[in-house]
Design a protein that fits this description.
single chain, 655 residues, mainly alpha, two-stranded antiparallel sheet
Length: 655
């Protein structure tokens, strides 16, 4: 009897051990496959962007990541038919998607291209006989953040002569220096996402519409395996696919009708006289992908996107009637209505960010005190503090003022928190901000007190992450939702995320340097390499030559925006009849909302509202695969064309 019990215990132990080994092997396989795809996506992203000016990862739901995940799901289905034991399980597919999604934006405009350019642009610009910015700012820029070999700088921009090799060694020190700051910021934003995730996901029930498609693709959503068999999915898929395909055919054969990814009605094109010329860039954009996303989101949030954008247009017209026309040539007016609008949006941004942080503070305190009912990880809190401490230390070593770095981080967090909520609840595919930390800090505190080193540091970090359209926080928050819904093993997920981030950054450096030395970076149209950093340096020199005190205009606009934010927040919380989220106000003047988002958001909101009103939730759920198909078709067909372009070496048309 005792012997049989012992044998049974040994058998159970062996079964558990084999199960652990099987999980470990599957985890290693998933991370390895994810790593291969991350590097492949990095190569395609950089090549298509530098050579053909394509953007396949510069979005809140990176097309390239979804495309490679789509290929993985298709391949996994084929493997399952051959031998089910070889196929990936759902959680393995989830690890692969998280690795692709979290790292997709890093190589391009989000970080990689600008980070590389910061190490070399000051040594090269201004061109044509001018003194390089690095020499003019010798007392401000530390040498360990710049490539010191002149020939390595010149050939980066102009290309290597035949027979010469890439000077990798010249880049090691500056890239390590910049990467330390980048990793600290990524860690801080990742920890902030973990701190916010419990309240946003489980208590406030934020929708995270951008994660609905990948969850359905891996079979973890409400449709399960029926998702791929639904004819409405493929009907939706065919519409943007056909539009993009016709657009490409028109590029090669002009007799084919011209149509593309985005249909744009240029409403204000004929308005060339004042005051209507203030609206001459007013367009109605129709993007099938945006319609698909907007169908999935909360009606209040969807309405706020297009309503506040139309109110922004009304502001421009009112200012023009008052004599302050945004279309007037630069320098002809003393008051710029666009700057005023941007600053009011920032004021509302601060209020909304504080309002979102206040409920989380109690969770942070509980975590810090190790209380048993704490909903926030203490490790995330400590990680956030440590990462910010590392950035302050980095600023000191780089010759900047700690107070300046604190101001920069405070403004940046205020911006990305509000925009992060917009992405999480509104699924805004392309989110950007006209209010940036450098201009705001100098407007609110003046530029009289900082040293040249502090002004340069503020300028460089503004170039790197100031235009917070691709902040790591947006991806980390959505990935937290994906991990929660897909029930991914936490340790495997964390390892996959860390590996993918490092691989994306290292891959970006390698491919950017490889193609820049091969073709010459001055020949690339990608704005992070050819425009962003040089323009920032030019503005820095002008600012140093003319130091300014705090601006009453910036203060008054920011305070007015804060008042508007408080009003909108109070109305939304107190009155059920107020069907407008305040979050749309902070991106009302966004270039992406103006030129690509608001029209599709209006159509998606209108269709969703009508379906819910007259067909109820059963009809809404029945039509949902069609709108997911609009997203999938746009992503897959567009990325297929980009891949073919890189393989055959011919640039087509399209967005």
């Amino acid at each position: 009897m005792y012997r049989s019990v012992a044998v049974e215990q040994i058998r159970r132990y062996e079964d558990r051990r084999q199960a652990v080994v099987a999980v470990s092997w599957r985890a290693a396989r998933a991370i390895l496959w994810g790593l291969i795809l991350v590097v492949a996506l990095c190569a395609l992203t950089i090549h298509s962007n530098l050579i053909y000016r394509r953007y396949i990862t510069a979005a809140s739901l990176p097309s390239g990541a979804v495309f490679f995940f789509f290929l993985t799901v298709v391949l996994n289905g084929i493997v399952r038919r051959i031998n089910a034991r070889w196929a990936m399980q759902k959680w393995e597919l989830g690890i692969v998607f998280s690795m692709l999604f979290i790292s997709a934006a890093l190589p391009q405009a989000s970080l990689g291209e600008t980070l590389v350019t910061l190490a070399v642009a000051p040594q090269y610009y201004p061109r044509r006989g001018g003194i390089p910015y690095a020499e003019q700012l010798a007392d401000a820029i530390p040498s360990w953040l710049l490539v010191q070999e002149r020939e390595a700088v010149r050939t980066f921009y102009e290309g290597l002569p035949p027979g010469h090799s890439i000077p990798w060694g010249a880049w090691v020190v500056p890239m390590v220096g910049w990467t330390l700051f980048a990793l600290a910021l990524i860690a801080a934003l990742g920890c902030l996402a973990r701190i916010l995730s419990h309240r946003w996901i489980e208590e406030e029930r934020v929708t995270f519409p951008l994660m609905e498609l990948p969850l359905e693709m891996m079979g973890a959503g409400s449709e399960g395996n029926r998702f791929w068999r639904n004819p409405l999915l493929w009907l939706g898929f065919a519409i943007p696919g056909t539009m993009i395909g016709i657009g490409q055919m028109h590029a090669y054969f002009p007799t084919v009708p011209e149509i593309g990814q985005i249909i744009t009605w240029r409403i204000g094109e004929g308005w060339q006289t004042a005051p209507l010329n203030a609206l001459r860039d007013f367009v109605f954009p129709v993007w099938m992908l945006v319609i698909g996303v907007s169908y999935l989101i909360n009606g209040e949030v969807a309405a706020s996107i297009w309503v506040f954008h139309l109110l922004y247009r009304a502001q421009l017209l009112i200012f023009a009637l008052m004599g302050y026309n945004a279309a007037a040539p630069s320098g002809t007016v003393t008051f710029n209505p666009m700057d005023w609008i941007h600053h009011t949006e920032f004021g509302a941004c601060v209020v909304l960010s504080i309002a979102m942080l206040m409920p989380v503070w109690a969770d942070v305190v509980k975590a810090w005190r190790r209380e048993p009912d704490a909903k926030v990880s203490r490790g995330a809190v400590l990680g956030f503090l440590a990462a910010n401490g590392a950035m302050l230390l980095w600023a000191m070593l780089a010759g900047g003022h700690v107070v300046m770095m604190l101001l920069f981080l405070a403004v940046l967090y205020a911006i990305v928190l509000a925009l992060g909520r917009m992405v999480a609840s509104g699924g805004v595919y392309l989110v950007d901000n006209g209010y940036v930390p450098e201009r705001l800090i100098q407007g609110l505190s003046g530029s009289l007190w900082p040293s040249n080193g502090s002004l340069w540091m503020l300028n460089a970090h503004n170039a790197l992450v100031g235009r917070a359209d691709m902040s790591f926080l947006y991806f980390a928050l959505n990935d937290e939702k994906f991990r929660y819904e897909a029930r991914l093993p936490q340790r495997v997920h964390l390892l996959g995320v860390v590996v993918s981030v490092l691989a994306a950054l290292l891959g970006a450096y390698f491919f950017i340097l490889w193609w820049s030395y091969q073709y010459g970076a001055v020949n690339f149209a990608a704005w992070p390499l050819s425009w962003n950093v040089p323009q920032h340096l030019q503005r820095l020199m002008a600012g140093m030559a003319s130091r300014q005190p705090p601006s009453a205009e910036v203060w008054s606009a920011t305070l007015l925006g804060a008042g508007i934010g408080l009003f909108l927040l109070n109305m939304n919380r107190r009155f059920t009849w107020w069907r407008l989220s305040p979050i749309g106000f902070v991106i009302a003047s966004s270039e992406n909302v103006s030129g690509q988002i608001w029209g599709g958001a209006f159509i998606g909101w209108l269709v969703s509202s009508l379906v819910k009103r007259y067909g109820g939730m059963p009809l809404y759920r029945k039509l949902r695969p069609f709108f997911l198909g609009l997203i999938l078709g746009d992503v897959v067909v567009y990325c297929t064309i980009v891949l073919l372009e890189s393989l055959i070496g011919v640039r087509g048309a399209g967005f």
